Amino acid sequence: MKPDDFANVIRGLEAFGLSKQTIARRAGLSRQYVHRIAAGEVRRPSHETVVRLQTLQRALEGARKL
Fold this sequence. Notes:
Blueprint: H1 3-15, H2 20-27, H3 31-38, H4 47-65
Helix pairs in contact: 1-4, 2-3
């Protein structure tokens, strides 16, 4: 994935109505790190970071389907 792809993940989570601060809290990441990802400043987040964001995204998508 490219940095823009990770930024798109954050934008997708924001589309669920979450703030960057809420995304950070729910994903177990720092607020500053989420802001850096959204700005495209993080080139290669760790596998764990990607998994945390994807897990949050899937949980929100699953809740939306209910």
